[in-house]
Write a structure and sequence with these properties.
CATH architecture of the largest domain: 3-Layer(aba) Sandwich
Distance between the termini: 8 Å
Mean pLDDT: 90
Radius of gyration: 21 Å
CATH superfamily of the largest domain: Glycogen Phosphorylase B
CATH class of the largest domain: Alpha Beta
CATH topology of the largest domain: Rossmann fold
Strand content: 5-15%
Amino acid sequence: MHVLLLTLGSRGDIEPFLALGIGLRAAGHEATLCASRHFGAWIEAHGVRHAPMDDGFLELLHSPTGREGLERSGSFFGMLSTALRLARQVGPMQVRIQQDCWAAAQACRPDLIVHHLKIMGAPDIAHALGVPAVLVPLVPMVQPTAARPCPVLPTWPDRWAGAAARRAGYHLVNTLASRFGTGPVKRWRREQGLPVRPRAMDLRHDAAGRPVPLLHAHSECLLPRPPDWPPQAVATGFWRLPPARDWQPPPALQAFLDAGPPPVYVGFGSMAGRNPTRLAATVIDALTQAGLRGVLARGWGGLEADTVPSHIHLIDEVPHDRLLPLMAAVVHHGGAGTTAAALRAGRPSVICPFFGDQPFWGRVVHEAGLGPPPLPQRQLSAVRLAAALQEAVHSDAMRRAAEAMGRRLSAEDGVGRAVEWLLQMR
């Protein structure tokens, strides 16, 4: 079987699909991963065939305009406002992305397409080729449920709304995505001479109106399966890359680790808003106030600092599965991938969300006793972060809960379960 994987976004959006591609190849199948050109060398270094995708969306995300948009997107209405303001730039990018996905599909002639939520035209490509498509929501925001509010909507309505309103929130998100996200796809269909997009086709239904399979890459240890989910919605466990067994800390990092008690890891990836220098200064000040040592990951512009005090060590990219178990706690933005890595390492998380699903993961982690209440970036200060760090590092109950969750997640094989489930679709 040849599977075409389609994904779009930052590294956190690519890594789960790369892990799935590795798992498919290990099971004797072919996998092509269509993703931004920026990630091509990294993907192919893991032995997975890469099909290039336009980098425009990624470049916009990390541009001053994109950073400003992220900073304003701390709420659902902020996200809507940002999406509307960037629509003129994003629309043509979506057309180019759709064209690249179509080229990849024509080149590999897949038996199955597995796609990220952001690739809105993947069902259209699958329909044109006559093959099935599987949607992978990295955050469970598509399948309606009465068990919990939709992760990307405000939480305040849940204080007075009941089960019906919770389910309605998911339908609202699906409707908005189908209404505003498929314009470029319809344009692509016209350019390809394809028929008008079937009315029945949306996030959860194929061209014939049948429910599409929803393959969730999260663990039910953290998010129990809602009792009202249908059979076609499954959660396999987090998808992780094979362990980086040959990685060793660089000498300077090893010397820092050996020089004192376990430090706190701080990394926001590329999420730092418009002022990564100010964010780095806030983090350093908080660690100093808390009397803690820290390892700061610069990421792709996430944190910027030229000089740091002796109790702080700066690093670039390192494998989370090897570094995080050496830490006392983990401070991050709350992306699904980083959240999973911190929990799998058995370390408490201090989550400082920016936008999207990040506040949701912050709430889930806190409610499970695995970290302090999330600190939204707009409310972040050195005093608040220092207090959260103290709790994360010194709470015995939180440490024990994180260690127990780490053992449970480490015992799961999310990729293996996902591969087995996909093979049933042949």
